[in-house]
Amino acid sequence: MDDLWQALHALARAEKDWLVATRRDLHRHPETAWAEYRTASLAAATLEEAGFALRMGGDALNAQARPRRLDPEQVQREQARARAQGADPRWLARMPDGLTGLWGDLILDDETADESGSPRGPLIAFRFDMDANAGLNECRDADHAPAAQGFASCRDDAMHACGHDGHVALGLGLARVLAALRPELARRFRGRIRLIFQPAEEEGEGAPGMVAAGAVDGVSRLFGIHLSMQAGKSGALVCGTTHFLATTNFEVFFDGRAAHAGLAPEEGRNALLAACTACTALLGIARHGEGATRINVGEMRGGEAPNAIPAQAWFRGETRGESSDINGFMMAEVRRMVQGAARMHGCTARLLCQSYCPGASSHPELAALVERVARDMGGFDPILPRAEFWASEDCCWFMNKVEEDGGQAAYLQLGADRPSGHHTARFTFDENVLPRGVELLARLALVSLARRDA
Ligand SMILES: [Zn+2]
């Protein structure tokens, strides 16, 4: 294998300029949840050119399994915006109705494997998220590298502040490196390598529809990856992330009765007061003896004037739990307290769950394999066998499905220096880590395939 590892190393190094240019292009053109048309078009074009068999639109994302969709006017607007920013209309036509997820398969099976009934090689999958952060205005100061070097976000209501621009670049660089080695790979290995590009991670909405469309059916090994995060510095690597929290996003509508605040306040039923009572009650939900919990109310609105009793109020928040059961406990408490607070103030309340994401953990055996492969490859320091995440990631949908079906999943974190935290206006990351990331992922793919000489 040494010749192959050397070829891979050289190829990944040679991709550096392409990786950086691609990351910067994506960074300059951020796209938020369910509007990743330009990004997905670039992914589709690159995968096709690299010889991957594509699945797009309704074939890659089950529209019914989406927790949320953009309305038709938003879809039209976002498609037009993507076209104006250079997205190829040929690909846009294949992503109707905000179905911006896709995957590509590099097939190294024997061509006859299907008809003869002989077993196909293993299916190895990698998952990359594509969306940017909504509502963030990227820093324009001269000491912020993307601004200084001319690739800061072209809009003021969205930016790549989590590194997903780098994730897409990693995935597409991986496709190009594997494509360059394809004749050699086909000679030595059997199996298929699937690269999954997922929309809407930031809202935790993109994964369930892709799982429902079969994105990881039959996958024996799945790798997810995030830049920086807990791996922090360039050179560091987390081999297996554990303790992803299950989470639910919810919103509550309170209805009361309006009244003159001076003349007849006693006739009013104050919906804003009910919302405030509910909010303080929720932050007092008991801790759970079997694991960690989180609760947050992050946005609230209500009322219209200082001299009127508010008839309507609204807030939204989230729960998290170390397991799906513990998160379920939190949501049951939320429901009970919201109803109690509404009744207390003579109002009614309606609670809607906007999205749900399960928890998960990397499989220890697969994390150990990542560690071995990284040590063989060299260049990583420190190599951390595991890290506890204590946040949520909708990659857990894919991870759980793979493990339910008897496969294994691991979520890596690739260290990259960053001047500022994730989800802040000064976020960016050290692009020098991208070739090393591509090389590691390609190695993981190859050691997971079946060898023809074995
Ligand atoms: Zn992220």
Automatic annotation (TrEMBL):
<feature type="binding site">
    <location>
        <position position="164"/>
    </location>
    <ligand>
        <name>Mn(2+)</name>
    </ligand>
</feature>
<dbReference type="GO" id="GO:0071713">
    <property type="term" value="F:para-aminobenzoyl-glutamate hydrolase activity"/>
</dbReference>
<dbReference type="Pfam" id="PF07687">
    <property type="entry name" value="M20_dimer"/>
</dbReference>
<dbReference type="InterPro" id="IPR052030">
    <property type="entry name" value="Peptidase_M20/M20A_hydrolases"/>
</dbReference>
<feature type="region of interest" description="Disordered">
    <location>
        <begin position="63"/>
        <end position="87"/>
    </location>
</feature>
<dbReference type="InterPro" id="IPR002933">
    <property type="entry name" value="Peptidase_M20"/>
</dbReference>
<feature type="binding site">
    <location>
        <position position="226"/>
    </location>
    <ligand>
        <name>Mn(2+)</name>
    </ligand>
</feature>
<keyword id="KW-0378">Hydrolase</keyword>
<feature type="domain" description="Peptidase M20 dimerisation">
    <location>
        <begin position="249"/>
        <end position="325"/>
    </location>
</feature>
<feature type="compositionally biased region" description="Basic and acidic residues">
    <location>
        <begin position="68"/>
        <end position="81"/>
    </location>
</feature>
<protein>
    <submittedName>
        <fullName>Amidohydrolase</fullName>
    </submittedName>
</protein>
<dbReference type="InterPro" id="IPR036264">
    <property type="entry name" value="Bact_exopeptidase_dim_dom"/>
</dbReference>
<feature type="binding site">
    <location>
        <position position="423"/>
    </location>
    <ligand>
        <name>Mn(2+)</name>
    </ligand>
</feature>
<dbReference type="Pfam" id="PF01546">
    <property type="entry name" value="Peptidase_M20"/>
</dbReference>
<dbReference type="InterPro" id="IPR017439">
    <property type="entry name" value="Amidohydrolase"/>
</dbReference>
<keyword id="KW-0479">Metal-binding</keyword>
<feature type="binding site">
    <location>
        <position position="202"/>
    </location>
    <ligand>
        <name>Mn(2+)</name>
    </ligand>
</feature>
<dbReference type="GO" id="GO:0046872">
    <property type="term" value="F:metal ion binding"/>
</dbReference>
<dbReference type="GO" id="GO:0016805">
    <property type="term" value="F:dipeptidase activity"/>
</dbReference>
<dbReference type="GO" id="GO:0005737">
    <property type="term" value="C:cytoplasm"/>
</dbReference>
<feature type="binding site">
    <location>
        <position position="162"/>
    </location>
    <ligand>
        <name>Mn(2+)</name>
    </ligand>
</feature>
<keyword id="KW-0464">Manganese</keyword>
<dbReference type="InterPro" id="IPR011650">
    <property type="entry name" value="Peptidase_M20_dimer"/>
</dbReference>
<dbReference type="GO" id="GO:0046657">
    <property type="term" value="P:folic acid catabolic process"/>
</dbReference>
